[in-house]
Write a structure and sequence with these properties.
- The structure holds three protein chains of three kinds.
- Chain A is α/β, with parallel strands linked by helices.
- Chain A is 37% helix and 18% strand.
- Chain A has eleven helices and ten strands.
- In chain A, helix 9 (193-209) links the parallel strand 7 and strand 8 (216-222).
- Chain A is globular.
- Chain B is built from six helices and seven strands.
- Chain B has a single domain (2-179), classed as Pyruvate-ferredoxin oxidoreductase, PFOR, domain III (Pyruvate-ferredoxin Oxidoreductase, domain 3, 3-Layer(aba) Sandwich).
- The longest helix of chain B is centred in the first third of the chain and has 14 residues, at 15-28.
- The relative contact order of chain B is 0.18.
- Chain B is globular, with a radius of gyration of 15 Å.
- Chain C is an alpha/beta fold.
- Chain C is built from 14 helices and 15 strands.
- Chain C folds into two domains: 4-195, Rossmann fold, CATH 3.40.50; 249-359, Rossmann fold, CATH 3.40.50.920.
- The longest helix of chain C is centred in the middle third of the chain and has 21 residues, at 224-244.
- Classes of the chains: A alpha/beta, B alpha/beta, C alpha/beta.
- Chains in contact: A-C, B-C.
- The A-C interface holds A 24, 53-57, 59, 66-67, 69, 72-80, 83, 86-91, 93-95, 98, 115-116, 119 and C 24-25, 27, 53, 55, 57-59, 61-63, 65-70, 72-73, 75, 77, 91-92, 95, 99, 205-210, 213-220.
């Protein structure tokens, strides 16, 4: 076999994948192996495919999502901790023709911002909510989240979450699905190519739903946090499959306004 | 001209709306007006009072301790406000339910049996208009036509059919008010 | 054209002014004594006429963050509340100041601390003028003393907010909010069109066209040196505001030997006290603050060389008086008089305070 030169490979006809034009040139600041980068990319690809870059406004609040505006080449607002659904409510209300999404972590959406999340959903704001659930506070150094599993250690429950003391993990997605203002609820992951494809389809559906004006589309992405969980990326994904998925099962929960999961 | 008035009685006697009509009447003839209710827990049930100021000049404080006129419709208000009438000022009251009549000698005191008159006219709700008539007889600070305009502005359109009755009540008050 | 005159409550005048000034959105949460603002708006249904959004939020916290969201789109957005609710909004106000967004916030002040009382007070002066939330920032603070000014300061407030990309607060109280007075209404202004907004607010997050880079609204900068640079920029802005936007009214100060310093409803009480004092032959004038920030230090310092003393009258334990003292720089005696907790001083009490604390003292 003759030696192949790099310049012979990098040719337009050989191109099978490229970074979305809706992402900036900035290098992602996420830990290697983290699901956030993939989730960012999927949002960008959906925006690009739908050709709505000029019509989309994103809201990222506090947590690992906070710097999303550095990576997405769209207009974005950085919101106070937990308040993204309120901020997005206003954006959509003053510009109903635009596409508006929030991108929130578990601490943001299911702890400090529970009221804003539930009320924006219950009002049926015509927005897309993307919820990254990794069961831990990644940005601040691995503290317990509202979604931390029973027995799972974190820096504020170093001996594992004791539900007698710390209370139960909150299945906010199931709770949200019960609200009349919510049109689409699904739980996805981005740790295998198959799951990435499924998550992208879900995100696209969530954005397309905004054209219908039927209420909130809510996508939970169960993700890893290998640095917070103190595991290697591969071990983190395995731990996620074995521990997170049984408690937070993947799949659609509400589609077209109807509950579909048992 | 500046006229500083306190109207005080029970909630439900139309104290606030009478004040509002008076203020609107002043506005209709181009004067400066202020209407300041007592508000808070007092709004429900207990006593209700409103300060109304009508002036040719810019109005200073809407909160007062001395009044040109006190219109008093229950005993609690008599106890509280009789002493706050300026010397040579005016006190108008409805004797219904008032046991201790005003005692001051340095003010002009007038009486109107508005509760009784309103009942005779077949509509207790026009009680406050009888009072207003009595007041305007003594102090015609606003023209009757402006009072009617004020009434139109301050009561809902669906009640405009009651305007003639209100006007009659004002006239009745003018007719029946007596100096003590 | 004939003047459009109405008898209105201060709170209603604010709401009517919001519609007429072409505001895009109001977000609020009920609290006494200012609930008439949202009640009036819901009755008027401006969303059917001008297209103005009116929404009752789930909390004061949500309401101020809705204001953030709309303001970041270059919209004329406002909220209103009373003291405890304004405390809840402080985080959002800090973010709005940090993101340099224009907006209008009404505080109909009631007595505190805590749940306090629903009666009028001016005890939020420090909170309004010194920052309120976390970080180094200032609001432009307007203090209406009449229902007419409640109406007029909405448009003025929005103008200043957009001119400086800074939140503006109207600090009122239960007296001005609940009192009815004659108001001359301004004409209905049309809401700005998207193209006007794009021109006026090139920073707004309205969707990124191919012709520009993406707009980001944030108050975050993890690099300390950059954050300092931003803080210095804010300080420059506040300096300009101090130079250009001081507003006050001088009442009978030309021949005055004594000055009452007051704002809002206290200024109205002082006008009556001044009449009583002048009737006694005591030459009293009033400096009525219209802007609480920027504070009219210069005029007070000038007057300090001419008068025998100042009495700061405010319904608080003594907040504005500190700024009066700073302005007067010990050139004349400065004393404070105020009632607290929702009690309103009578004009006679103000007369007595001046006689005892300044003239007698």
């Amino acid at each position: 076999m003759s030696e192949i030169e790099l310049k012979d490979i990098i040719k337009k006809e050989n191109l099978v994948y490229e970074r979305s034009k809706v992402m900036t040139d900035n290098v992602l600041s996420f830990c290697p192996g983290c699901g956030h980068g993939t989730a960012h990319r999927l949002v960008a690809e959906v925006i690009e495919e739908m050709d709505i870059q000029s019509e989309t406004i994103g809201v990222s609040p506090v947590g690992c999502s906070v710097l999303m505006y550095n990576f997405m080449d769209i207009d974005m607002q950085q919101a106070a901790h937990g308040r993204a659904p309120a901020v997005a409510t206003a954006i959509k209300r003053v510009m109903p023709e635009k596409f508006v999404f929030t991108y929130q972590g578990d601490g943001d959406l299911a702890a400090i911002g529970t009221a804003e999340t539930i009320h924006a959903c219950n009002r049926g704001e015509n927005i897309t909510i993307i919820f990254i659930n990794n069961g831990i506070y990644g940005m601040t150094g691995g503290q317990m989240a509202p979604t931390t599993l029973p027995g799972m250690p974190a820096s504020t429950c170093p001996f594992g979450r004791d539900v007698e003391i710390m209370g139960n993990p909150l299945k906010i997605t199931e709770l949200i699905s019960q609200l009349a203002g919510v049109y689409y609820v699904t739980r996805q992951s981005v740790h295998t190519p198959r799951n990435v494809r499924s998550a992208k389809k879900a995100i696209k559906k969530a954005f397309e739903n905004q054209k219908l004006n039927r209420g909130v589309s809510f996508i939970e992405i169960v993700s890893n946090c290998n640095s917070g969980w103190k595991l290697s990326p591969v071990a983190a994904n395995k731990w996620m499959e074995e521990n997170m998925f049984p408690f937070y099962p993947l799949g659609d929960i509400k589609v077209d306004g109807e509950i579909v999961s048992k | 001209m500046t006229e500083e008035i306190i109207i005080a009685g029970f909630g439900g006697q139309g104290v606030l709306s009478m004040g509002k009509i008076l203020a609107y009447s002043g506005l209709m003839q181009g004067q400066e007006v202020a209407w300041m209710p007592s508000y808070g827990p007092e709004m429900r049930g207990g006593t209700s009072n409103v300060t109304v100021i009508i002036s040719d000049d810019r109005i200073s404080s809407p909160i007062l301790t001395q009044y040109d006129t006190a219109i008093i419709l229950n005993q609690q208000s008599m106890d509280k406000f009789e002493s706050m009438v300026k010397p040579r000022g005016m006190l108008l009251f409805d004797p219904n339910g008032i046991i201790h009549h005003p005692q001051r000698k340095d003010i002009n005191i007038y009486k109107i049996d508005a509760t009784e008159l309103a009942a005779e006219m077949g509509n207790v709700k026009i009680f406050n208009m009888v009072i207003l008539g009595a007041y305007l007889k003594i102090k015609p600070i606003v023209k009757l036509e402006n009072v009617i305009k004020g009434l139109k502005k301050s009561i809902p359109e669906r009640n405009h059919k009651l305007l003639p009755l209100n006007e009659q009540a004002i006239n009745k008050g003018m007719e029946k008010v007596v100096k003590i | 054209m004939e003047k459009e005159l109405r008898l209105m409550k201060g709170n209603e005048a604010i709401a009517e002014a919001a519609i007429r000034s072409g505001a895009d959105a109001y977000f609020g949460y009920p609290i006494t004594p200012q609930s008439e603002v949202i009640e009036y708006l819901m009755l008027q249904k401006p969303y059917e006429t001008t297209g103005m959004v009116v929404l009752q939020a789930e909390s004061e916290v949500a309401a101020i963050n809705m204001v953030y969201g709309a303001a970041a789109c270059g919209r004329m957005a406002m909220t209103s509340s009373s003291s405890p609710g304004i405390s809840l909004k402080q985080e959002g106000i800090s973010y709005i100041a940090g993101a340099e967004l224009p907006c209008l916030i009404l505080n109909v002040v009631r007595g505190g601390p805590g749940l306090g009382t629903i009666q009028p007070s001016q005890s939020d002066y420090f909170q309004s003028t010194k920052g309120g939330g976390h970080g180094d920032y200032r609001l432009i603070v307007l203090a209406p003393a009449s229902v007419q000014e409640m109406f007029d300061f909405v448009e003025l407030g929005f103008d200043l907010a957009f001119k400086y990309r800074n939140p503006v607060m109207i600090q009122s109280d239960g007296i001005i909010g609940q009192m009815m007075e004659k108001v001359e209404l301004g004409p209905q202004k049309p809401r700005r069109k998207p193209e006007d907004i794009a021109k006026q607010c090139p920073w707004a997050t309205t969707g990124k066209p191919v012709t520009r880079g993406h707009n980001i609204i944030t108050s975050l900068d993890l690099v300390a040196a950059n954050q300092e640079k931003f803080n210095l920029k804010l300080i420059e802005k506040y300096k300009t505001i101090r130079e250009k936007e001081v507003r006050y009214e001088l009442i009978n100060c030309d021949d005055a030997e004594y000055i009452l310093v007051a704002y809002g409803s206290s200024a109205r009480l002082c006008m009556k006290a001044m009449d009583l004092l002048r009737a006694k032959g005591i030459k009293v004038g009033i400096v009525r603050l219209i802007t609480l920030f920027p504070f009219p230090s210069k005029i007070l310092n000038e007057l300090a060389g001419k008068v025998k003393g100042f009495l700061a009258v405010e319904m608080s334990a003594g907040q504005m008086v500190e700024d009066v003292e700073l302005a007067v720089k010990c050139k004349a005696p400065v004393e404070h008089f105020g009632r607290l907790g929702g009690m309103i001083p009578s004009p006679e009490e103000i007369v007595e305070a001046l006689e005892q604390k300044i003239i007698g003292g």
